[in-house]
Structure formats: structure tokens, C-alpha cells
Specification:
Length: 197
Amino acid sequence: MTTAFPHEVRTAVLTPLGERDLGERDAGRVRAAGPADAAALHALSEPFMRSGALRRRARRLYELTADQFLVAEEPDGTPEGCVALRVYADEPAAVLHNFCVRADRQRRGVGSRLLAALLAEAAARSVSEVYAATTGGGQSFLRAGFRETDASAAPRVWAAALDPARGSRIFVRPLTGPAVPAQPRPDRHCLASTHTR
């Protein structure tokens, strides 16, 4: 079961988690997506699908799942990034997916705003943990208090759908208790990445 997000996520919950000053910050907002945003969600995701960072998805799938998405917008309303939260009715944990930030808007706090808003929404829904899979280095997740793990405690349907051939790294962020401090694995080269399964 998925419940739609409120229309706009309040600014108070958008405080970036563990973010360092990266220079320019914009006054854009994060809001809930709707079916009318399907084309924009698909367009934001297309470069990541082309690169193989995201699995290929039809625009129609974005229409059907738009209520799972948050959209970051520039002050003029231009979409600059998106992320989705999939909540399962029979699972205490949820899954973050389709985390994309336009190339020209990366390293400006957009991803941090999206992550903070998604984590706040997950906490408001009484989710115990949020899982994510990435083919990239996962630095954005580590900075937001996620830790690397395996999929054994993840929502069963999601874990079963993971493609081992993609070589995705799995991350989890507990929402009860303190966040896990950032600790990149020393045996892997960590690239800044927000590419998700």
C-alpha cells in the first residue's frame, strides 16, 4: 500500500543531514509529485537509464507510481531532481529508488534536500528503515547516515527483484535511534554518486 505525499514538503524538514557547505545554495522547494509530473520524472531519469545507472522504465510506469515521488524544483518551477519512496503494507522498512539529480544541478544541495525530505516522509509514515541500492559509490547515502549492508532484512519483494549482475551496493538508514555516522568501506573506491537501482 502506498499513501500519497502531502502536496508540498515543509521547509522545516528539509535541513540537509550531515551536509557540508558546497557553495551555492538555491531556494528551490521539494514537493510531492503527481501523475501530471510523469513526463518530467521520466525526463529526469532518462540520462541515468541511458548510462545504465537506472533500469529502463517506460513513461507509463512513472504515471502509475508518481505518488511515490518527491520532486525538487528550482524557484521558477523547473524540475531539478526526484526520488521515490516505496512503502510496503506488510513490511516495517521502505525503499528509496529512482534518485536522480540533473547534471547541471549536482553538488548544489539538491540531492541532500531530496534525501532529507524523503527521510522525513518515511519517519512520518512510521517506517523503521529505508533501503537503497546503487551502482555508484554511494557517497550521498553515506553522508545522509546510511550504512552499507546486504538485502537480507530489506523488504522481501524488493530484495528478490535485485539483479546480481548489476553489482549494486545496498545501503540502509535506520529511522529509529541515531543515524549511523558516515563510514565508507576502505576496500572500495567511493565515487560521489546518486545512481540507484
